[in-house]
Structures are given as C-alpha cells and as structure tokens.
Amino acid sequence: MKVEDLNTGEKTTWCPGCTDFGILTSVKQAITNLVNDEKVKRENVVGVSGVGCFDKIYDYLNINFFHALHGRSLPTMFGIKLGNPELKVIGFGGDGSTYAEGMAHVVHSCRYNEDTTFLVFDNQMFSLTTGQATPVSEKGLVTPSTPLGVHEKPINPLALTLTCGASFVSRGFALDIPNLTKLIEAAVMHKGFSFVEVLQPCISYHNTTQFIREHIYKLENHNTGNYEEAMKKALEWDYCQNENSKIPAGIFYETNKPIYEDQWPHIKKWHTVKRNPDFRKILSEFKK
Ligand SMILES: Cc1ncc(C[n+]2csc(CCOP(=O)(O)OP(=O)(O)O)c2C)c(N)n1
Ligand code: SF4
Q: Which atom of ligand 1 is nearest to 93's Cα?
C-alpha cells in the first residue's frame, strides 16, 4: 500500500500552511506503515472525528470514518469498539471540544481503558469559530470571548489523563512529522486507551509555532513505565509561554493493564451475531 492510497481527492479547506497538514501526513504515513507491516488491516481501521478545524481530516483520509458531534468523538469511539472489538479505532478531537464540551468523556475513556487511540489537535484555541479561548489557553490571553484576558490557569491534559488512569500518555508536535508518525504507530499498537496530545499551532488565531520550536525537546532516557516520572515530566510545562519553558515530547507513560473489552468476553462475539431487528416495531415504541 502507498501513502497516496489514503488520499480522497477532496479539496482541502484548511488555511494554507495550517499545521493540521502535518498531522494528516503523519496519520497517513503511520497507517500505511502499520498496514504494510501487517500489524493492522486497512479495512479494520475506523476514524472518528467531531466538529472543529481538526475534524476535516475525515474528508482527506480514505478510511472508514464516522463524523460525530462536537466534543463527542470519545463516546462514539467507545461505541464502535464495543460493537466490533476487531476494529482499530483512531479518534480525533480539538482541545476546545475535547476539554470543554466533551471533558467528561476524557475522564471515563481513561478509566475504562478501552483499546482505542485518541489524538487531540491542541492549538489552545477554538479555531473554527474564529479564535476563542479554551481550557488550555494560557493565562492572560485576550480573545473575543476573553476581552479582559483568560483569568484561569490552563488545565494540564497530560497530568489529567495520567491521573484518570490512561495506560498510554504522549505528546507530539504537528511539525515534527517523523517523530509524530512513530508516536501514532506506537499509540495504535498499544493495547488500551492511548492518549496523544499533538501540539498544533493555529497560524491564523494563535500562532505559537516559534515558541514551541524553541522550547520543545525529545524525551530521552526516560522510563516510560514509571508513573511518578511521567507525572513529573507532564507537569514540566504549564501551557503558558514563559522564557524558561521546557516542553517534553514523546511517550510519557505506557503500561499494561486490563482493557475494557477483555473484562466482558461475550462482547467480542456481538458483531458476529446476525440480528434482524424490526425497526418499525422499535420506532413505534418511541412514538407511544
Ligand atoms: C455543542 C456545540 N457547542 C459549540 C459548537 C460550536 N463550535 C463548532 S466548532 C467549534 C470550535 C472547535 O474548536 P476545537 O475543538 O478546539 O477545534 P479546532 O477548530 O481548534 O480545530 C465550536 C465552538 C458546536 N458545534 N456544538
Ligand atoms: S483556523 Fe487555524 S486551525 Fe483552523 S485551518 Fe486555519 S490555521 Fe488551521
């Protein structure tokens, strides 16, 4: 399989130069590598996205795809996985929709540890709606929704997902395609809930490209099995733009623990059972 086989031919409507293109390229390369290495079957890959600039990836990626509601990628991914545990589910979210409207789902996907992969395109901004502050926007940021500046400290999604029990916690950068590709491959192959934060500067409303380039560094000699070390690294950057900020990238934490599907063996057979539901009867019950 070639990377180009994943093209859809759709015209892209992201702003020219948007760093979302870097994530799209990495996702395509990662899927191609996994399929060619026979680790994943292409027909078993299912993408899920919500609503935001990031979500347009479903138009540009030629795989099975479900376009869910704003902030609801995670429960949709969970439902697809439960419906057919043989599928490799890769979900996409924006920081706004994920940590504002959809926050509760983050907590529970980490707890359930279902075997899915979730990429958050983190531009610290609600970009599609022209640049309002999100729960990860830095303190003091002036936007149309925060004319006096953001008052609260940003949440730290890596510390949060670690706390909630995610078994794979990582951070990549949209403009570092080789490392992001490797990270996505590792996340997809990890058995359990894989959380991938992708720093994705929005060049139109919140251009942090230079800041991230200057402060990001690759995690090396880091013990990914050590929870305390992972938490220490997660807290190293507070999502604000300080001169002395250090932004670690790579796999922070990876551990094996029971996945949701394995605790309920009977669900593994659900998708093989032939059902013939009487939809008229079901609908009539709701009309009562
Ligand atoms: C429940 C609900 N709330 C708000 C919106 C409006 N809305 C659509 S896209 C969007 C911004 C998305 O921001 P984010 O998830 O960070 O993705 P980005 O556009 O930055 O990629 C908002 C607020 C909506 N569609 N549905
Ligand atoms: S608004 Fe920002 S995130 Fe959206 S397409 Fe343009 S540059 Fe990309």
A: 15
Regarding the beta carbon of 205 and ligand 2, being less than 6 Å apart is answered: yes
- Write the DSSP string, the chain: --GGGG---PPP-SPTT-THHHHHHHHHHHHHHHHHTTSS-GGGEEEEE-SSSGGGHHHH--SEEEE--TT-HHHHHHHHHHH-TTSEEEEEEEHHIIIIITHHHHHHHHHHT-S-EEEEEE-SSBTTTT-B--TTSPTT--BTTBTT---SPPP-HHHHHHHTT-SEEEEEETT-HHHHHHHHHHHHHSSS-EEEEEE--BTTTB--HHHHHHHEEE--S--TT-HHHHHHHHTT--SS--TT--EEEEEEEE-----HHHH-GGGGGGGGS-----HHHHHHHHH-
Q: Which residue has the higher pLDDT, 268 or 60?
A: 60
269 or 153, greater pLDDT: 153
Q: Which residue has a Cα nearest atom 16 of ligand 1? A: 96
Q: Is 53 in the pocket of ligand 2 (CB under 6 A)?
A: yes
Percent of the chain with pLDDT over 90: 91
Q: Which atom of ligand 2 is nearest to the CA of 121?
A: 3
* Pocket flag, ligand 2, residue 241 (CB < 6 Å): no
Our answer on whether the CB atom of 200 is closer than 6 Å to any ligand 2 atom is no
Residue nearest to atom 6 of ligand 1 (CA): 129
CB 15 near ligand 2, within 6 Å: yes
In total, how many domains does the chain have? 1
* Residue range of the domain that includes 254: 3-287
pLDDT digits (tens, 9 = 90+) for 171-213: 999 999 999 999 999 999 999 999 999 999 999 999 999 999 9
Q: Which atom of ligand 2 is nearest to the CA of 17?
A: 7
Taking the model in full, what pTM does it have?
Answer: 0.95
pLDDT at 163: 98
Nearest ligand (C-alpha, residue 100): 1
* Residue 249: CATH number of its domain: 3.40.50.970
